[in-house]
Design goal:
alpha+beta; 135 residues; 30% helix; 8-stranded antiparallel β-sheet
Length: 135
């Protein structure tokens, strides 16, 4: 049983790290980093608003990178195929990262990792921590 947890923790670690690396990267950079993975690019357009997302498939999860109008990654979702795995993923984050009650998530480097339970799906949301510019 211990090996199963260690294998899952290793997978979570890799996927969260890759998600963090995508933050603030360009669409082209993210696509090239995941060149060996199945990718699905979606362009959303409504009136003057255009957004792009890129889904990257792993063995038991999907990373969804969200890009702004300049094609820079502004957030990453990590969706696990098995909903039961989210418990282990939360356990991994609790044991690995410091939790910030004010930001409501785990803080690592300049990223915030939050539990996301919107839209009937449960996963993690990885966001850049924006520094206050004094205005």
């Amino acid at each position: 049983m211990e090996n199963i947890h260690q294998d899952k923790y290793k997978a979570y670690s890799e996927q969260i790290t890759l998600g963090r690396l995508a933050i603030n990267a360009s669409l082209q950079t993210v696509k090239s980093v995941f060149l060996s993975r199945e990718q699905y690019e979606i362009l959303y357009s409504y009136k003057d608003k255009k957004e792009t997302s890129l889904e990257i498939r792993f063995d038991s999860s999907t990373l969804v990178c969200l890009f702004d109008g300049n094609n820079m990654c502004e957030g990453v979702y990590l969706f696990l195929d098995d909903v039961v795995d989210i418990t282990h993923c939360i356990e991994y984050c609790n044991n690995t990262y410091s939790c910030d009650a004010v930001l409501q998530g785990w803080v690592v480097n300049n990223c915030l990792i939050r539990l996301n339970t919107d839209n009937k799906e449960c996963g993690l949301l990885i966001l850049p921590i924006k520094k206050d510019r004094g205005s």
